Amino acid sequence: MQYIQMTDVVDLLGLLAPPQDRSSYYVRCPCCDTDPRKRHLNINISKNVFRCPRCGASGGVLDLYSLYTGTPRDAAKNTIISKLGAGGVVPTVKANQPITPTVTEYPMTDVDTRDATYSALLGKLSLAPDHRENLLLRGLKDDEIDELGYKTTPVLGYASIAAQLQAEGLYLSGVPGFYRNDDGIWTFIHEKRGILIPVRDVDGKIQGLQIRRDNVAKRKFRWVSSAEKKDGCKAEGWTHLAGAVQSEIILTEGPMKADIIHILSGSTVLAVPGVNTLTQLKLALIRLKGGGLKEVKTAFDMDFLTNIHVQNGYNNLLRLLGEMGLRYGTYLWDPQYKGLDDYIWEHRLERHRSE
After folding, report:
1. Per-residue pLDDT tens for 140-177?
2. Containing H/E element for 50?
3. Are 346 and 280 found together in one domain?
4. Among residues 38, 101, 131, 277, which is most buried (max CB within 10 A)?
5. Is residue 230 part of a domain?
6. Which own/partner contact pairs does 14-18 have at CB distance under 8 Å and 24+ positions apart?
């Protein structure tokens, strides 16, 4: 019996081969790298996984094939088998395959522990005036900003903050963003300055954090992760729910966008990291269906109409909604406004100006 490996799919797709003695490397992301010289999608050969920190696309062997070809994931396996003549097993690691040594990471801890640690972390931070002004200009009010819990990334004192959290009895192991430095001391990942965004599950618990980085044109939103750090932990492509569970929700991309749409419109909004990241979405939809969800209205940035790879992911998304027995539709608006949040806020401002 032959195993299907990430290297097999890389060859089938004609992607850049991994450099010698490297298990992790970057290739062009079909969803967000419009410049052919850019390479944001990371492929880890030894772990048989990939992830794009810019758009959130991630998964395993079958997901990579589906992402690049538009083939539905459930059909990808048979397609690969027919092309390779393989036995059809998709393992985590191929039997007897040498593995490049990697840094030891902690498995992710439970959501209650993550929620407690992240809540305490955010409680020790503040929101810088320029970040508050940015959110006010997006249509939020001061009390709404405070309620969301957004904070500015710390400039210094990462190890000190970690020590305070430990002294308060909070766990850092298995919480993405925390890791041990070269001296064996717990610390927090040092990211570019930006706004920390809590990413909450259906119960309102903080699963993880995203950061909206200042003064960058590309990869503005990134997950807070300590993957490939000593005793670190990688982030997952979690969904984020803004508002109470209702029979109809809006589905969009990105937790900050979801929060703003919810506050401006009053609608309940579920966010995915990207249109091609459906694993965590399915889990969230199962929970929401149990709470009475019946219909989903998609509201992705209008550039999805011109990006074929995003369209392929969008079609797979609609297929998932149909398979789950959910009604669905799509919101469209003037494409001069990239996101639904921009569109709603601009038209609210126009009403105020005309009154």
Report:
1. 999 999 999 999 998 888 999 999 999 999 999 999 99
2. strand 49-51
3. yes
4. 277
5. no
6. 15/43, 15/68, 18/43, 18/45
Q: Which domain holds residue 13?
A: 6-84
Three-class DSSP labels, 116-156: HHHHHHHHCCCCCHHHHHHHHHCCCCHHHHHHHCCEECCCC
Residue-wise pLDDT tens digits, 44-89: 888 888 888 777 778 888 888 888 888 887 788 888 888 876 554 4
| Its pTM surpasses 0.70 | yes
Q: Retrieve residue 132's tokens.
A: 């508050």
CB atoms within 10 A of CB 161: 19
Is there a single domain that holds both residue 131 and residue 66? no
Q: Are 205 and 112 in contact (CB under 8 A)?
A: yes
* Of 84 and 120, more confident: 120
- CATH number of the CATH domain containing 72: 3.90.580.10
Cβ-Cβ contacts under 8 Å for 27 (sequence gap 6 or more): 15, 16, 39, 41, 43
Helix/strand/coil for 176: coil
d(CA 209, CA 227): 14
Under DSSP, the state recorded for 298 is: E
How many domains are contained in the chain?
3
Q: Is residue 98 part of a domain?
A: no
pLDDT digits (tens, 9 = 90+) for 222-239: 999 998 888 898 898 899
Where does residue 37 rank: exposed (0-12), middle (13-18), buried (19+ CB within 10 A)?
Answer: exposed
